User: What shape does this take?
Amino acid sequence: MNFETREAVDLHIIDALDSDDARHGRSEALAIRYLLRDTSISILSHYAWDQMTLSEAIKRVSLYRKEYINPRKYLPFLHIACHGLPDGLVVGDDVPVPWGTLVQLLLPLQQKVDYTLPLTLSSCHGFSGYRVALQEMEGFEKKRPYCFLVGPQSTLSTKELILSTAALYRGLLEDYIGLPKSIQKANEHIQKADAHLAYTYGTDVREKFAKHGIDDKPLFAPARKTK
Assistant: This one.
């Protein structure tokens, strides 16, 4: 995906806060915005506390530009910041959002952008979100729940998530060095190799994991280094 040729790419960050984070004003969007303050990246903030408000936040992303119906020129990049487990996200005060549920919440946005959505799951085990592509997706004409997905392979601190994803976006949306090199730059902020950010494309998942039960361990290998 070439971000440089588009007229606008908007980074939409959804802070799915628990009550303690909300009370103390801890916002991943604000931290990333600060780290990228010297860039021209368009960053927009949204908030969610449960499944309903997460759905509403995704809808606001969809409505931000009517031009998103032309994703070759205008594209949203979705970043969801929350807690996570291998079987789904955990938003607000321990509200589970299984991968199958996330599929349905993303579907209206995906339909608008013709299934070209780049997705970052900034949560522990966020890379396990590739499993949304293993769900039944009758509403997905192109049979993929994202263009590409980025997330950590296991548990990370909030600081590591913020530093690594900020580096990712600097590479992708400011320096235009591409996804593999941007991932490599992002992982310089993560000490544990088994927790590095990894990525997968929706079409790869569709082709390799057409049925449930297929060994998915290869997906957890670290991203290949690029020259």
Summary: Residues 219-227 have pLDDT under 50 and may be disordered. The chain is about 30% helix and 20% strand. Helices lie at 19-23, 28-35, 51-63, 99-112, 158-174, 179-186, 202-208. The radius of gyration is 16 Å.
